[in-house]
Design a protein that fits this description.
heterodimer, A: about 260 residues, alpha+beta, 3-stranded mixed β-sheet, 7 helices, about 15% strand, B: about 650 residues, Formate dehydrogenase/DMSO reductase fold, two-stranded antiparallel ribbon, 7 strands, elongated
Amino acid sequence: MKAILTDTTLCIGCRDCVVACRKANALEPEVPRRWETRDGLSARNWTSIVERPGPVYVRKQCRHCLEPACASACPVGALRRTPEGAVVYDGSKCMGCRYCMMACPYGIPRYDWDLAVPYVRKCILCYDRLKEGKQPACTEICPTEATIFGDREALLQEARRRIRENPGRYADKIWGETEVGGTSVFYISDADLSFLTRGRELAQTPMPAHTASAMHAVPFAFFGMAATMAGISWIIGRRMDLQQKSPEDKKDDDHE
Amino acid sequence: MNRVRNFKLFLWALLGLGAAVGTARFMFGLGATTNLSDAVPWGLWIGFDVMSGVALAAGGFVLTATVYIFRLERFHGIVRAAVLTAFLGYVAVAVGLLFDLGLPWNIWHMIIFWNPHSPLFEVGWCVMLYLTVLLLEFFPVPAESFSGLAKVRNFLVKLRLPLVIAGISLSTLHQSSLGSLFLIMPYHVHPLWYSPILPVIFFLSAIALGLMMVTFEGLISSYLYRRAPETDILAKLGAAARWVLLLYLGVRFTDLAARGQLGHLADGGWQVTLFWMEIALSAAIPAALLFIPRVRHSLAGLWIVAPMAVTGIVFNRINVGGLVHQQRGETLYLPAWTEIAISAAVVAAAALAFLYFVEKFHVWERRPQDPEAAPAALPRFDVASFASLGSPLVRSRTLYSLAFVFAAAFGFSLLSGEALSSRGVDPAPVEEARGGDTLWIDGNLDGFGTAFAHRRHVERLGGDSTSCALCHHLNVPRDRQSGCYSCHRDMYSVSDAFGHDRHASPAGAALGCFDCHAPDAVKSAQSAKECADCHKDLIPAGAVIEVEDYQAAGYTEAMHQVCLGCHQQQAEAVEKPDLPRCGTCHREHKLLVDDPLLAQRYQRLESRGVIVPEVLEEHFQGIRLAALPQEPVTQIDEP
């Protein structure tokens, strides 16, 4: 299972990753549009550098959750997680409901608002390159190795090693190690990165678990309701029959 | 006054406006016709058309349960109207969804690509199945009028009980699963609304809403067709609704208390205000009023309570559907007029269909007559001119058509293609480059500019006498350094470089029309003289860059074209393949300008060994970054 470790203390904000990403995914440069958010991600920018006070540069991209909310939410399964760890998108299945955009706890997926035939856009961990045995374009180009690619476990160990061996340099936390069930893109930093989730601490519960109980209840609710209604109908019908019969003695029940 | 006709005229006009906007929606995409954005991907069309549409259709399953399961026969008179409303409501939901979906022609994918984990998958299937059930439930009504359909009708009537039960079960799922949709957004939905039992809350409020909606509908139609409203029946619906509303309130607050979120009520802020407004409108005030028998039994009382409760619960759906989502923080979403027009048109179409069914078939016990629809009336003639004034029936149809066509034309007039295709782009005025021999070119002042070694380029390209015209137009009199920004005024959009008014006005060149345009041709840029016809002397010998068009390209595009062309040639000539790369000119922005903050950051990085000057030097093709703060002039491409 592959992953990306981004160490914001190493990032110099050169944006070569942004350019490399655009090239690798054949994304056109674009003009700023009304519908874009301030973090620089857009349908034509699948990764961006967010400058935080310090300055600290934080590279934003899809987190490739181990249990992705988007894939769980998509009604037609256009988004899915591959064994390599990449969460990829199949535009030919998509119907454009944008539930994935609503569901993502990190607010990552973007939309082709300017096109008459729009698709959902986000980082796919350069899945095509991955299959060829190459690493993603962004990690390949990074001049300071602030963002590196490798096996998830190995990178987690590397992150822990850096935090351990450089006391005081990092906040004692790996963003993405366990939150929402773990992500394949995680960060270590000297700054507080909770801005990535609008200041909210994410619980360890994987996102799909939030809807699972309601979804499991569906068949019970359906057949339970049906049985209740049928039962009530039968009881009331029988009562009415009996009421009709008792005063008029034994009259044949002729229904219409 | 003919209330029915005026109401229909209004509906047809809404439909016409919607037709115009709908055309634009499919031609130009969602960005051009909505205020949706990456931060607010769901807006009015989901919050109102889908979420509220489904809720408003709840009258169908509530009343079929009342009449066919609980056998309360006194409600029999309104059950057909309730089923029809539910059916049309669901059709409206589906139609509204077609506008909202980015790829509506793929809506059927839900049938073959399954993702049973997705609440939206469940919603979709419930809509499809329940729509079918409603169709079968309602079909016997129009079938009464066609003797050939008697067999089908009898079969469906026999199937009624299973159909009703299936309808109730599907509605239960569907109403609640609209709540389940938002369970996956625990970090977005405000804690006053988010709850693991959202599905239960949605189901309860849907029952109350169903009762109130049937009441409201009864009131409106009796007003339109001047029928006596079934006040006693409606009062009984109200009596039932008060208990449901009370239960709903109880569940809402118990849930808040159980989750320990009651404290948020003291937070202040607009969400809390919104919460109290919603609670008051949707449940608290209607329930309180419905407990007063005089209100329940009076027409005026019902006219107040029913619309209030309906508005309140729709308000709840809109709140949960996006208004109180916290990712919006910085983004204010208000629906565009185009979004409102589509929503209104969908409702109008449903209302027109409702009126059609009501007038043509026995939806109510007594079929209302359109006062003007007397088919026996003969066409009238204006004797003097022999012109037909039409029969009353034709006349009202003519009026409806006119309302539709005029409204559509009005809609199109507000939707010029140019205005739509430029939607979403804010003008980005360009700033002049600053500096001396090295220019800091950063048109939009965002810090990501480039330090351009102007002196060095001048020297390399042959000195002051020949080099200017290689990059500059020099089309203005005595021009030695025409600033690019003076014509390429916008960072991204094309701007007018010609200045027609300047040429035509007495204060400017004071030219007459025929000085430039041919007298017998349409006056356009194509039929006018070339710039060079008058300004030949202004274009220096050897100029490389020519004015081709009256429109100046956006600054970004112009600058890139000027630089990249040479850099690509040079890259081949001097065998430096990276010369045309973005990073050659656009480096880490503030490293190149005098910025104490960045210098500090840079030193920090270097002291940690993060930045190894030699490595970076290699990466940036020969710049000595360490020397930059002292000397911003960079050695870009020293041969």
